[in-house]
Amino acid sequence: MTNTALITGASRGLGLALARSLAAAGWNLVITARGSADLERVAGELGATALAGDLADAAHVERLARAVPELDLLVNNASGLGPTPLPALAAYPLDAFRALLETNVTAPLALVQATLPALRRSGGAVVNVSSDAATAAYKGWGGYGATKAALEQLSNVLAAEEPGVRVWWVDPGEMNTRMLADAVGAEEAAGAADPAKVAASLHDLVRSRPASGKVSLR
Fold first, then answer.
1. Torsion of Cα atoms, 98 then 99 then 101 then 104, to 10°
2. pLDDT tens digits for range 171-210
3. Positions marked catalytic
4. Percentage helix, strand, coil, to 5, in the chain?
């Protein structure tokens, strides 16, 4: 039987790399991101189903859930960085912080809620992609880190409430992605890990199915 995964933020970075790894292993994929052109290109490459849209839109979340009546893996990878250059908390624009909470916390929870019936039936798994900024005090990363800390606690409680579903909140470490380049500059980001290598470790996690918990891929 073919496994099915729903991956958010799958048009680039870690989401794209994981989609490629799972597709090579024969997984059926439903992928989403906001940019339809890049997403359709990836879908064509991998034979995946592409559903572009904004995860803050309840109608899009419902559409994704309908597309995966049978689901083995939900990967909440899509994430926002917030304003750049990264502002100190003393000057953090509150409207931007509210929007970041919507993207990084509320939207993943909404998708978990919408897909839990299918995940319960399959005994499936949820991967919530976090960051060491959730626990470490990096100047400028307070807004982003606060949202990831909230996502980690949601994951922690979800694991306790849903013993039949594996829940992993994953710190992938620094990766050479557009998001990191936006935060620290392209030159510094170029020295970070290749997302494909991180995706291989994440695929190993999915394959081995350890108990629910926090996982560091550093």
1. -170
2. 999 999 999 999 999 999 999 999 999 999 999 999 999 9
3. 144
4. 50, 15, 35
